[in-house]
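Hey, resending since the last one bounced:
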Amino acid sequence: MEQVKDTVPEHEPTIVNRAQAGDAGAREELIQESRDFILNVASRQVKRAVGPSDDEFSIALLAFNEAVDKYDPARSAAFRTFATEVIRRRLIDHYRGKGRWLPEVPWSALPEGTDFASADEDERRNVRYEIEAFVSRLSEFGITLEELVRVTPKHRDTREITFSIAARIAGDAALRGQFLQKKAIPLKTLFSQILFSPKTVQRHRKYIIAACIVLTGDFPIIREYLARPERGMAPDEQ
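The structure tokens again:
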């Protein structure tokens, strides 16, 4: 799928502030400048080209407007990172409400520790939506679900260590901001703050990134399962 080009205007932080302050002209200007960005996010989420006449674009547009109102630079990374998450959540809600699915992910393809066989039908439906969104988010970091399955640590101790690294990144505003903005583990800052083996981080880079995605995104069901001790991740390390 070909993506339209999208650049971030240098004045965007200022215009977002003006829009939040009630400047209707600034809000309209921001929306017009972000049209390609909104289309891109919607297209990536539903895995097909979304056009201005599609329902998905209308939903994404409303979600972008919501993101303008709710954005707090003290709690989030760049505005477009925050807006992307809001658009993704609203599109997921839309598909869930219509009983439709994004491209399916087979249960057998899920990483170790994500066995949802005991879940009831409604929970399995919600879980599948989260997994669809998770797979889409993984792709933004250049990781496939199949790769994640292969690189998931086999030993519980290793999973606990790598999850604690991800939890450290997700729980620190500076580390989290660098991770979301650069879509990579902020190695230099991480190693300057805590004593982790560089070999451990490098060897399990994709697994740590995946755990960071879960901890920093809207994946409550997946996070609950991954955080259970029997799944290999202690809840006190979230």
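The chain has two domains: 12-97, 142-237.

Sorry for the duplicate.
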